[in-house]
Amino acid sequence: MPLQNRVTPDGSIIADAARGSLMGNRGGEMHDGSRRLTGRRWVSKAWIACVLQYKGRHEVIMAPGHYTQLFFLDEATALAAGHRPCALCRRADWLRFMAGWQEVHGLATQPKVADVDAVLQTERVGVDKYKETYTARLADLPSGVMVSTDPASPPPLRGRNTVRGSALGDVASLFRTTPTLALPPQGGGDKWSREVSLTPAALYLNGALYPWTPSGYLPPIEAPTTVHVLTPRSIVAILAAGYAPMLHPTARSMSAAKSV
Fold first, then answer.
1. How far, in whole angstroms, is CA 258 from its chain's centroid?
2. Which of 138, 178, 194, 213 is the most exposed place for a label (fewest CB within 10 A)?
């Protein structure tokens, strides 16, 4: 039985046997002694994406008293969920990301990572704890962005945590778009232990949309004019400024097949 530790583009955490290409966490322990998720979906605002192996270290997954390891199909998935590169194990990517952040926000110096995390928190989770999305013209978005392919089915709630955030400036002014909110999850009872992502997501790459699955990307689908953007606004701006995320091999193979 797979553990509930796979992150989807809308930030949900599901159970799936497919192996991810990146690992990460949300600042602490979100599981119990039976290695099941509790109601928490984050512990701090430091949501990071790491390499699977670092200097030969071996970690027990969901060990008691240890942070909850999360896994992502690829970096585009992690970025869409609101995770940034780890400053330790992905130092080069982190420096590129921070340089992009400084550029798109017009800052004179590199910001403090805590300030970046605070802004990302407001962009990925609304004050009412819904997944934060916004609408945009697909043609205006850069490659590497994740979008919802069904405007009638916005993303579900993230979790029960309380959001407290600050800002580095008016991030919304970077885009002339309309904020949207998600619908709540259906059903009652222990809904968090059987969390299912209801958001049909797709990767926008080189002008085409590739549906996302936990195992990889599917062949391109017809692209709508307007979409719900899952990737946080600041990260979209960083992608537009030239940051190239690591993509699952199926994205490249599907893109190559489409161009033939």
1. 26
2. 178
pLDDT digits (tens, 9 = 90+) for 194-204: 455 557 899 99
**In the chain, where the domains are located:** 4-259
Mean pLDDT of the chain: 83
CA-CA distance, 181 to 126, in Å (whole number)?
8
What is the helix (H) or strand (E) element at residue 240, kind and residue range?
helix 233-240
Q: Collect all residues with Cβ–Cβ distance below 8 Å to 62 and sequence separation of at least 6.
A: 3, 5, 31, 35, 68, 69
Quote the Cα angle for 49-192-130, to 5°: 70
Secondary structure class of 23 (helix, strand, coil): strand
| pLDDT for the residue numbered 67 | 95
pTM exceeds cut of 0.90: no
Packing angle, helices 233-240 and 91-104, rounded to 10? 100
